[in-house]
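Open question from group meeting: does this chain pack into something compact, or does most of it stay loose? Before anyone orders reagents, we agreed to write out a predicted structure and look at it together. Recording both the input and the output here so the notebook holds the full record.
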Amino acid sequence: MSAPTLLTARLSLKPSTYEDYQGMAAMWADPEVVTYIGGQTRDPQDAWFAHLRNRGLWDMLGYGYWIVRESRTDKFVGEVGFADFKRGLEPDISGRPEAGWVLAKSAWGKGYASEATKAAHDWLDEVLPGRSTCIIDPDNGGSIKVAERLGYQEIGPSDYRGDPILLFERFSPGTGKG
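Structure tokens returned:
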């Protein structure tokens, strides 16, 4: 399955292409961008591997990540989507879509994270309704607010690779949960 293209008032969410690699690599090389995402920048090879992974998720799972661009300028904004990373967390969140979003620093403070993640979740609710999860660094207030706007509720603290995280879950509207 290939990622569908989603359009919002200001953004396009599209399947990743070879041409998206430069924007993605620059974003992941920025120390400020990764502050709350493990704190480690990605070198060009690791960014390339992540780029390939994001594209391959669609074939394996029927969902994955989109590249987000400004509709008006086609400027790279970031990536949003879903994965099953088999993280081995407690409680285990494997086997269901785990939401994620990361934006280039130039896109911060514009409401793009909320806009893009809402479009992605609207798609998920239509195609694969049910439970989704996300994990967020406890100090990342901006992402916690985005998650709460989407309807995520904190289900507790956990630990990922020695770092504290918060687990959140969300149920699609109309599923009788949440």
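Observations to bring back to the group:
The chain has a mean pLDDT of 96.
The beta strands are 6-7, 11-14, 65-70, 76-83, 98-103, 131-136, 153-160, 163-171.
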